[in-house]
Every structure is written in C-alpha cells, then in structure tokens.
C-alpha cells in the first residue's frame, strides 16, 4: 500500500468556505462574514473575522447578498428571522464593508 503524498511543509492549508448565495467555495479571507452574536444581533464581521457568534459567508458582491436573502439562506444559516429593517441594516453594513475593502481588492 502506497503512502499518501504529504504537502510541502512551507505551504499552509487555506481554509475554504462556501458562499451562501451562489454556493461557490472560495478561500475564507476572500468572503465577507455575517455574524449572529450570542445576544441575537446580526452584524457584518470585521475583516479578520473575529466577532463571536454563528457565521455565514458571502462573496463580496451585492448580487450574492441579494440571492442569499431571496433564498432565505441567511435566515436559515444564522438560525434567525430578520425583519425587513434588520435585513436592510445588514445590507447597508455589507455595502459599507465592500466600499472600505475596495482598495485592498485592487492591490491583489
């Protein structure tokens, strides 16, 4: 029986996550994390993804966010029922995050 080949020690494993809108797997750091905190608030996570709570990952595109809302995937994954006002507040935070991350995206 042959032993499986090991990855070189200098290469780190990149964690992958699936976008809940389009279902495409991408490296975790390329996605935006939406979090339901233990207090029940739904927020857009920090760029490093350090907020405590249940998270869902979405591509940094408004189309994927809208698709996640349309499919009710965000409510399902976060195990929460959001009102229209809460959804709009999260969408505003999502768009602000995209705008603030725009310079980072162009440098890649």
UniProtKB/TrEMBL annotation:
Gene3D superfamilies: YlxR-like. InterPro entries: YlxR, YlxR-like_sf, YlxR_dom. SUPFAM superfamilies: YlxR-like (SSF64376). Residues 17-90 form the YlxR domain. This is YlxR domain-containing protein. It comes from Candidatus Wirthbacteria bacterium CG2_30_54_11.
């Amino acid at each position: 029986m042959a032993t499986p080949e090991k990855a070189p020690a200098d290469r780190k494993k990149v964690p992958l996550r699936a976008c809940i809108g389009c279902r495409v797997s991408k490296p975790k750091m390329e996605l935006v994390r939406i979090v339901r905190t233990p207090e029940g608030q739904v927020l857009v996570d920090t760029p490093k993804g350090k907020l405590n709570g249940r998270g869902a990952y979405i591509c940094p595109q408004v189309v994927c966010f809208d698709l996640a809302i349309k499919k009710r995937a965000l409510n399902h994954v976060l195990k929460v029922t959001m009102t229209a006002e809460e959804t709009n507040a999260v969408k505003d935070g999502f768009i602000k995050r995209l705008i603030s991350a725009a310079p980072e995206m162009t440098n890649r």
